[in-house]
Structures are given as C-alpha cells and as structure tokens.
Write a structure and sequence with these properties.
Blueprint lengths: L3 H24 L5 H41 E4 L2 E6 L2 E6 L1 H7 L6 E2 L5 E2 L6 E2 L15
Antiparallel strand pairs: 1-2, 2-3, 4-5, 5-6
Helix pairs in contact: 1-2
The structure holds zinc ion.
Zinc ion binds next to helix 3.
C-alpha cells in the first residue's frame, strides 16, 4: 500500500523528467540524434514512473475518503454500531471488530435475544441495555 514516501518518489520522478527535458531543450543541436533518443527514452521512463506512483496515491486517497465517509456515517448505538445514511439505517455491526481492526462485521441475530459476531464470536444483548439516567447537576 502506498504511503507518504510515494509522494516523494513521484516528485523525484517528475524532477528527473524535468531535468532531462531541460537538458534536451538547452542542448540545441549539440546532441547527436542517438543521444537525444536516449534522453527522450529516459524522460518517458521517468514520466511513466511518476504516473504509476500518482495512480497509487489516487487509489489510496479514494480509500481514505471512503473510510472517512464510513466513519462519519457510523453511529454508536450501545452495545453495537449502526450505519446511518440519510433515512436508511444498516447494521448492527460488531463493536469489537471495528474498534480493534476497523472491520465492519455484520452481527447475526442468534435467537437468544442478542447478536453474535461470526468473526470474533462476540455476543451482544441489546435487550439488557438500559439508557443510563441523565446526570443531574445541583445548583
Ligand atoms: Zn466481531
């Protein structure tokens, strides 16, 4: 998976490509045809590297954007997570799997008045959950 170093690699490839282009431009007719072809091949290679690195970064950024959107839609409805998108509510999702690995594992109704996670084997009883009383501040 690409990381912040990929940005440096992409910038280095672009700098190399720019340097080669400048060399070709400034050399005028002093370079032999074979040398020009070699320089242009290096230029194309550097641009191809930069293109690949930037495409990887674009994929990474899209994944991060999806994660941020998912996190914004995620609601803690004790004892599990639900996803709310407009009027639609999805879930419940395992709190243990999400809190440990950010994995969205759908809980399964177990028939025991609760929900089971088939990944971590957690069991969550929603019927036992009682909203705590509001904290009263005396003045
Ligand atoms: Zn789980």
């Amino acid at each position: 998976m690409p990381d912040i170093a990929s940005i440096g690699a992409a910038l280095a490839s672009i700098k190399t490509a720019t340097d080669i282009a400048k060399l070709i431009k400034e050399s005028g007719t002093s370079l032999e045809q074979a040398e020009i072809k070699l320089q242009v091949a290096d230029l194309i290679s550097s641009l191809a590297d930069a293109k690949i690195e930037l495409a990887e970064l674009q994929t990474e950024m899209n994944q991060l954007k999806d994660k941020l959107n998912q996190r914004a839609a995620l609601k803690w409805v004790k004892p599990y997570y639900m996803i709310q998108s407009g009027d639609e509510v999805e879930g419940p999702f395992c709190p243990s799997c999400y809190d440990n690995n950010e994995k969205m594992i759908r809980l399964q109704g177990s028939g025991r008045n609760g929900w089971s996670c088939l990944t971590c084997e957690g069991f969550y009883k929603d019927s036992e959950y009682v909203q705590p009383p509001p904290i009263r501040v005396s003045r």
